[in-house]
Design goal:
This protein is 54% helix and 0% strand. It has four helices and no strands. The chain starts with a helix and ends in an 11-residue tail after the last helix. The mean pLDDT is 88.
Amino acid sequence: MSVARWLPRTPMDADVWIENIPYNETRAYVQHILEHIVAFAVVRKAEPPRIATLLPTVEPPPAAP
């Protein structure tokens, strides 16, 4: 699975990880989804989700058994 290959070797801030997604279309898609989550909250007059909730730290893959 491609995403598993993208996981960092050490914990990484999600915004940095997103910027390093190697496929332009995938990176843009992830960015647009995050933008739309915030936009829909504004349209609904709801409080936008906290950044820490949307972008938790990206962890390395678990060690193989």
